[in-house]
Design brief:
Radius of gyration: 18 Å
Helix content: under 10%
Largest sheet: 4 strands, mixed
Mean pLDDT: 75
Low-confidence stretches: 12-20
Distance between the termini: 18 Å
Strand order of the largest sheet: 1-6-5-4
Number of domains: 1
Structural class: mainly beta
Number of strands: 8
Length: 124
């Protein structure tokens, strides 16, 4: 993809990422229903007994977005043609394109990123 400046962020969504309680966390850290009945789950939990911080996968996802998607970036049209992959893209103020691809499985999956008629092949 000569002369095309973009950043590709790959996120792997393991089945364990949706746990209601982090592995090894005490029972009192169980998420509680929110005012609309869904479970509210923070990216960082503090074990009040040990003082240990537990970082959930979403914490790292937020970190990836905040590292590459700069303030003032505009979300642009992006799509995926696979059920197991989700994608979104942003145009940063400096002109760099950021593409975020989420693999919702534990499987390694090859795919192409197409931009203005040119493709770059990669794996999730």
């Amino acid at each position: 993809m000569k002369n095309l400046n973009f950043i590709l962020i790959l996120l792997l969504f393991a089945a364990t990422a949706c746990q209601i309680k982090p592995a090894g966390a005490p029972a009192q850290m169980q998420s509680k229903p929110f005012h609309v009945g869904n479970l509210c789950f923070s990216p960082v939990h503090a074990d009040t007994k040990t003082g240990k911080l537990i970082f959930i996968n979403s914490y790292f996802y937020i970190g990836h977005f905040s590292k590459f998607v700069l303030p003032g970036a505009k979300r642009i049209v992006c799509s995926s043609n696979r059920d197991k992959l989700e994608a979104t893209a942003f145009l940063n103020p400096d002109g760099k394109l950021v593409v975020v691809v989420l693999n919702k499985t534990d499987e390694k999956m090859p795919f192409n990123v197409w931009i203005t008629g040119k493709a770059a092949q990669t794996n999730s």
